[in-house]
Design goal:
Layout lengths: L2 E13 L5 E7 L3 E7 L18 E7 L6 E9 L8 H17 L7 H16 L3 H15 L12 H9 L6 H4 L5
Antiparallel strand pairs: 1-2, 1-4, 2-3, 4-5
Length: about 180
């Protein structure tokens, strides 16, 4: 698999050098991937706005000796309205953190990609943020096989933290959301 491509949601982006970024995406066909985006921080880069966190993209990458390098990116949806509301952004970060921590690298889960995209769309237009957050937690736990379908869980945050064996950084924000 030298060159490959898929649809993906950008989960995180970190500066790597003066012009490069390392991005983590969750793709439909390959699961969670870490990719190098060379030259993306340059002012004239065509990929610059396409690799923002939460963007739903179609990408192509080339696998060489090290980390795969993004060669082409096309935006499917960048959820502009979601980015205008700080509380919605915090819930979107929660979604991204949960997906990143509960899945392994290069483990295909097309249904999690679909779940993430659907919840980002619902979040963009939705108003019941706490309900969306709870439903997302339960659905991802069901898909990954941590709980039986339809089981009631009194505290989804505690359940997720016990699954990943760490505290979630975005949990604090969820406690301040309105029902």
């Amino acid at each position: 698999m030298r060159s490959f491509g898929s649809n993906a949601v950008v989960l995180s982006a970190k500066s790597y050098s003066e012009a490069d970024k390392i991005i983590t995406v969750f793709s439909k066909d390959f699961g969670k991937l870490t990719l190098m985006a060379k030259g993306v921080k340059r002012l004239k880069s065509r990929k610059r706005g396409s690799l923002e966190v939460f963007s739903n993209i179609k990408f192509f990458a080339h696998k060489g000796r090290g980390m795969p390098v993004v060669t082409e990116v096309e935006i499917i949806d960048n959820f502009v309205d979601l980015r205008k509301d700080l509380k919605k952004v915090s819930v979107a970060y929660f979604f991204a953190e949960v997906v990143a921590r509960t899945t392994r690298d290069e483990e295909e889960h097309a249904e999690i990609y679909v779940l993430l995209v659907n919840y980002l769309k619902r979040l963009e237009v939705g108003s019941s943020l706490k309900k969306l957050r709870t439903e997302f937690s339960l659905e991802i736990a069901e898909i990954l096989g941590f709980i039986p379908k339809g089981q009631f869980v009194p505290n989804p945050d505690e359940m997720l933290e016990s699954i990943i064996e760490r505290k979630l950084g975005s949990v604090r924000v969820g406690k301040k959301l309105q029902v």
